[in-house]
């Protein structure tokens, strides 16, 4: 089979590899689609902790079950599934609370597809018994395409942030950052019942691309006063939910000033390693009674919810896909996506 083998920083090669063998309790998955994640780009450019190299990367995956082990009865050949990347231990403090994305074993060992286990930038991948047991395969509804099913995982990460922020009917939501995840936040906020959605983005091209997702206000902070525009749009009150979908310290610090009283502020985009200290005015947190939180990853249930939202056409998943490319195009595409004005890129391995 063809596979994208990552050997180290800047070194990604398309090679012929054996189809992975499976045991009696494993599944062989034919990869139908695997989307490029921002983390894949970070791995390519900077490497990643605890990663076994050479490694097949890629963790935003949809596939069809090609074969099952003798003892597998929960899935059948031909079924389509989305893959939950993190293989949780099922035993730690957080797994017992159904916070599987915060699994302590994962935090220590990075036991996930595309990092510890071979990922989705290949024609086939093995799903070990532990992953089947832990619910890492989520069935894809009939009206969701392979490409849409591949982006259910990053969409679920955005959904996790929205759920922590308790976005709902009556909320006025400000999203800072209009990349692929920021655009997913627009659609999710609307689906969850937000009555007003504002988007701020410093790159004009991205702001223009985001217009197709139907936010109520689009703000370009380099051309207009962000604070003034936000307060005008919210009748002087400020947003009740702020999602910072960009690695911006300035946005994190300013969000406290922009927020309404008792607003939820989600630091969705992490700051660069070694440069992650923001200065927050604790008096604003205190007197405005603000809720400030982060979010990271998602659960199988949240992936299922995103598949259902796309299946029911509450969210048009195809809008987030800018390009579909072959496996051979992947190395060049990882470099291009950093320069071009694109949303999600999906790789079709075969």
Query: Main β-sheet, in a few words?
Result: 7 strands, mixed
Mean pLDDT, to the nearest integer, reads 95
Helix content: 25-40%
Radius of gyration: 20 Å
Strand % is 15-25%
SSE order and pairing:
Layout: E1 2-8, E2 11-16, E3 27-35, H1 38-46, E4 55-56, E5 60-68, E6 80-83, H2 104-109, E7 124-127, H3 129-133, E8 137-139, H4 146-150, H5 152-164, E9 172-176, H6 180-191, E10 196-200, H7 204-210, E11 217-219, H8 226-233, E12 241-244, H9 249-258, E13 264-267, H10 282-288, E14 291-294, H11 300-311, E15 321-326, H12 330-336, E16 344-348
Parallel strand pairs: 9-10, 9-12, 10-11, 12-13, 13-14, 15-16
Antiparallel strand pairs: 1-2, 1-4, 3-5, 3-7, 3-16, 5-6, 6-8
